[in-house]
Amino acid sequence: MLFNSFEFFIFLPIVFITYWYLLRRSLLLQNMFLLGASYFFYGWWDWRFMFLLILSTLIDYGFGLLIYSSERHKKFYLILSIINNLGILAFFKYYNFFAENFEHMANGLGFQVHPFILNIALPVGISFYTFHGMSYVFDIYRKIIKPERNFVNYAVFVSFFPLLVAGPIERATHLLPQIIRPRKFNYVQARDGMHLILWGLFKKVVISDQLSNFANPMFDHYSSYSGSNLVLGTVYFAFQIYCDFSGYSDIAIGTAKLFGFELLTNFKFPYFSRDIAEFWRRWHISLSSWFRDYLYIPLGGSQHGRWISIRNIFIIFLVSGFWHGANWTFIVWGGIHAAMYLPIFLGNRHRKHTTEVIASHSVLPALSEIPGVVLTFASACFAWIFFRSPDIQSAIGYIQHIFSRSLFTMPDSNRLGILYVVVIVVIDWINRRDERSTIFSKIKNPILRWLCYLLCAILVMTLILTQYEQKFIYFQF
Amino acid sequence: MSKNSSTSSSDLNSFLAKTGVFVAVILVSNMILLAAIIYTPKKGISKADANATKVSVLGGSNVGYDIDPERLDHAQILSTAEPYGFFLSFERCRHECVGKVLLLDMPYSWYTPEKYAPASYPFYSSVTPQLYLKLLWKKPELAIRNFLSTSIFNTEVLLYWKNIIAAHGSRTNAATPAPTGGANNLDAYHTCTNHYNPQKHFISQMNYSPEHIKFIRSEVMDFARSKQLEVLAKYPELNKDNYRINPELVKTINLNFEMINQMESWPDSLMYDQWYHMNQCGKEANTANIEKALIRKGVLSHQ
Lengths: 477, 303
Known about the structure:
The structure holds 2 protein chains of 2 kinds.
Chain A: H1 6-22, H2 27-43, H3 48-69, H4 74-108, H5 126-141, H6 151-159, H7 161-164, H8 172-180, H9 187-220, H10 227-258, H11 276-282, H12 285-296, H13 306-324, H14 328-346, H15 370-388, H16 392-402, H17 417-431, H18 446-466
Chain B: H1 2-38, H2 47-52, E1 55-59, H3 61-66, E2 75-79, H4 85-96, E3 101-105, H5 129-138, H6 140-148, H7 156-168, H8 183-189, H9 210-227, E4 230-233, E5 238-239, H10 240-245, H11 247-253, E6 258-259, E7 265-266, H12 280-296
Helix pairs in contact in B: 5-6
């Protein structure tokens, strides 16, 4: 079920009312109901893959208990758990990639091989729920948490429907205590949740989906467009993917708030970053911190000399790229980010902007900050070309067409998309100092605020019902 | 504890009440707008036109762009933009269709369940209360979708805006402009220049179900019986890839109607940006073919 679908607007109120009105006196019943609702939400897409989710949940639950109870064999169980999680991921997500590359390589060496290719859909959210499970097992191994003995509680942690298919990637240390603790309805939390849902839908349906109408044809038929148009196409895609994914995260966080949960923040205005290190502290935060805590630091982080640090940086960026999909384009995308991060790291400037957002005490940024923002955004856009293109050849073709004489002409089509970009940049700029603020909380006049709700809701509803549902980009990962 | 619990309960009630009011305001505004659209006066067909017409050609934008009415005497072209879907297009036909022969040239998307009564341009120009009730009876989920999508953003005001976007938008991805959508859109097709740029979108990728195809056939036959019409059909003008990929599927979804033409692979030089649409040269060639076919069937006579 998609957040931007008609079905979800029926599903959500039913679950909300049952949860708070009928089941509020029993935590166990509330959690069991949330689990059932989450499986229903997931099964709506394809009920058969629900069993994979249940199996994965059962296995990690079991390994969690085993690791905790056996000091002697805990490393062995941890390895088995990792093999299981990565095995599921490798089979469903990466098997065809490896098989096809093996075939190309063998053919290149003069051997004729035809490996078996799986004709199976990628289970939605597999990269997210396996990472939930892995973080839980790692945290038990490192004695950060104790295993959760109640299976329902653990299963809700893995399968909680707002974050099931595209995150944020939660940590057991953060979400499990909320699942175990009795919850009370909180008006302010629920209101903020509704704000986030509406704002997330606006970003997804009004901004991202409309920008996709401009960006898609340019990436699909780049040879028909001028260089300046293609630059515009890259900017459109940058904002399309940002509004798509941060919109999804807002809806997920907002929906969780309706049920009394607080999820991790996933985006903090990444396009206002002053360098690429700051960008990665603001973009898909739950994933980048996951890789930092469970891959970069265990590999030694930056504590074992310069060369080990460089190796580790490349590993986490390449793995992060590969996590996004079984395609060389994602690996190159990760590699570009690693290459851009490295000079900042080597110059020891990667912790320069760790806390405060740009222009945190003024209306406009300082002149000295602007080149950094522009350069970071341009670098991110360059990397997005690889991320968006179907293959490396197309990405190179796209870049070659950008750097042609037509780069210095006025873009002759799709200029209207600029309007959508300006809208989101202005609103984000107004909100930049608050972690999860929406435009609604900035409007103090209640009549004006309610008018704003209505306008957004009607616009979102009209577009949802009149257009084909556009899947969230991160559903494929 | 009990005080906290009652506070939480009253908060919940207050939250639900406000959300309920919010939803109610949206629903009421939709009802007002729907009523305004329903009761807007509509134009009818003139008697002289009705008497002279022998065949009504019903289809989507492909009919509007692939047939030249000036070159096809005694034919009435009933072209509706694709978002009208099957239901509204046939209802339009019920009121406007004249002559004794109905020639179907429907876009293949109309044979898919989601295009039966799509919520885009939902009731703009053709809905009546009876029609709405009819849809509610036949496909309640689609009627509800149509009602909810009725907003100021989905009426003529936005249609105007959408046309501006389409005109400025990409050549390959702009929404199919409605035949009534303005001179600029029509002008774009009045050229023999080949702009055709194939897209990865084929008939075989659409969501067909055998039950829905049967349902569409029964709808057409009921309609033809009620109006005492003879039904003929034609294969739409498509670029070669669409027919090549799955001719069996194309035959199936043509519902065993009597066809007046063959599946024809039109060269790219006669096509415009979308797979259904031809440029002016294609339009002329296609109209001549249709005229010959209708003469062969005895529907039209030699001049």
